[in-house]
Amino acid sequence: MASKAHKRSLAVSRMKGLVLSLSPFSKVAEEYRSTRTNLYFLMKNKGSKSLVVTSAKKGEGKSTSVTNLAISMAKGNEKVLIVDANFRRPFVHTIFNLPNQLGFLDVLKGTLPMKEVMYHSYVPNLDVLTSGDLSSNSLEVINSQRIIAFLEEVSQQYDRIIIDAPPILEAAEVRFLASRSDGVILISCKNKTKIDEFAEAKRALEVAGANLIGVVLNEKNQSLLDGYFF
Ligand SMILES: Nc1ncnc2c1ncn2[C@@H]1O[C@H](COP(=O)(O)OP(=O)(O)O)[C@@H](O)[C@H]1O
Ligand SMILES: [Mg+2]
Question: Which atom of ligand 1 is nearest to the CA of 167?
């Protein structure tokens, strides 16, 4: 059953995105550690646990950032849960080489408890809740009340909950997630994110009443991440 520890070791050489596992001394890994430290500083005194990561559009580095930040936090000795909330284009299960028949959608629906569907990853302290299968579910299960109940439950079990959200300009449910979580990180991708789309994304988060705590600038070609924070 899915609740058993996921012991299969990853073919990490295929996972070029997992910089902290592959090359902990690289400049990119250092950037993630620095981003993590900035986040801690900002979230610390507020008892903040849940963090939504979104961007204006797809392909801007959300899943990559979520995974690396979560690994960085787990390596900092915190108990971390990654949640894949990008139901239309889930990617976390691919990164961690996990099945995705069951997941977050089933927990939101209330048909299965969290512990039945989450996986312990190969990284100590890091658990993963994949998105679940949208073809056998409906997006109707995603509403504010269910998200609040879910976040309350997992906040008792984890130090940090990092949510890989869909692009805010493409999926209405991001607003629920963003407004119910403790903080939001907006990813911007160099040479990809358009300035007007970025501004629209930022505005949408403000309208939703989200606590936008920072922007991460993802630079794909040079594999460089940088962050600035409000
Ligand atoms: N900093 C980076 N360096 C190199 N490749 C990257 C970087 N960030 C993202 N990518 C690659 O770009 C693609 C899209 O990134 P992803 O994190 O899946 O975006 P999103 O989740 O926003 O759709 C993936 O193939 C990923 O491996
Ligand atoms: Mg993604």
Answer: 22
